[in-house]
Every structure is written in C-alpha cells, then in structure tokens.
Amino acid sequence: MRYDSDHKRKTRERVLDAAAGAIRAAGPERVGVAAVMAEAGLTHGGFYAHFASKDELVTAAIGHMFEEARERFVRETQGLDARTGLRAYIEFYLSKKHRDARGSGCPIAALSSDLPRLTDETRGVYAEGVRHLVARLAKMLEELERPEPESEARSLVAELVGALALARVEPDAKRSDAILAASKRQLQRRFGLESRA
Fold first, then answer.
1. What are the helix (H) ranges across 30-119?
2. For a disulfide at 163, which of 42, 107, 170, 183, Cβ 3.0-4.6 Å?
3. Between 157 and 45, whose confidence is greater?
4. d(CA 131, CA 19)
5. What is the CA radius of gyration of the chain?
6. Burial tier of 125 (Cβ tally within 10 Å: 0-12, 13-18, 19+)
C-alpha cells in the first residue's frame, strides 16, 4: 500500500513525539528504537523509512522538542508587550506546573547534563535551540532598553534553567517551591518586572 507524503509526515511526527517522551523519561542514551516505535503504534521494521540510525532519531527528536518549546514561548507571550511578555515567560518557566511537567518541559533543562556525551550533530541542534531562546529573550530585553540585551538574555536563560533543575531535584516540596519563588523574584527585580499594582 502506498501512502502520500502527508501520511509519512504525520507518522514521523508520531515517532518524534514518542522519542521525545522517551528521551525526557530515560535520557537520550537509553532510548530504544523498538520501544519508541511501539509507543508510536508502529512496527520496528518501519523505523528505517524515517531515520537512518538511532543517533539520527535522537537528533531529530531533540529538534522536535525545541520546536514544541518555541510554540510554547509564542503561546505564553503572544500579543503582549515586551515587559508583560517577559514577565509571563518567567512566570511560566519557574512555575510549579512546569517543574512538574518533566515529560513535556523545556528541553534545555531536561537534557543539559546528557548532551556532552552525544554526537556533534545532536549537540549542534541543542545549541541552536538554546541560541533561538536567547535571541527571543534578547529581543524583549532590547525593547526594554536594557544595556546588554544579548548578554543579559544568556544570563537569564542560565538562571531559568538552573533554578528549574535545582527545583526538580529538591525532594522537599517547600524548598523546591522556594527555589522557584526566589529566582522568579530576583529576575523580576533585575529586569524591572515587578507588579505595578
């Protein structure tokens, strides 16, 4: 049976969704092709119609995760001025909901400790995803007339990712919540985003 290109694209998307979930759950090195294909509702034999190797799958899945993160950024900030949009993104990123959404959260925080052991191509896709987030935040900071928007955006990403990672590994719920709240407060103060109410 022959399938059109849209069917192949949708099938590939299902595989990438399954692979992204497996990567977040177990890490990229523990992803099994057979398990990913089964999760996508496909046979193992169909894998090579979409990917040449497991490394290629992991690279594509990480790119897919960053595309989802870009869409989420747009949803959180769309139609908002730079100040309100930046505040909304920080609120989202350092929220309990995001902390607890390990299966669908930011790929930067989820994968940073795994990436140094992966291929150059995979690290390149990850680094490009980081650069895109930095660029979007730098644009907002530039609109806020910050003196060094790109440098500050890199620092902002580092603190967001670090605070989220620390909050996720803290077993005590109150201390975890406190990590998120403190970073949120400090970032809002640093960038003049405190509530005006």
1. 33-39, 54-77, 82-93, 96-100, 107-111
2. 183
3. 157
4. 23
5. 19
6. buried
In the block, residue with structure tokens 């109410």: 197
Give the whole-angstrom CA distance, residue 142 versus residue 104: 29
- Terminal alpha carbon distance of the chain: 62
| Placement of tokens 């692979």 in the chain | 19
Half-sphere exposure at residue 6, Cβ-oriented, CA atoms within 13 angstroms: 0
Written as six digits, the tokens of 119 are 């291929």
pLDDT in tens, 50-65: 888 999 999 999 999 9
Per-residue pLDDT reduced to its tens digit, 118-129:
999 999 999 999
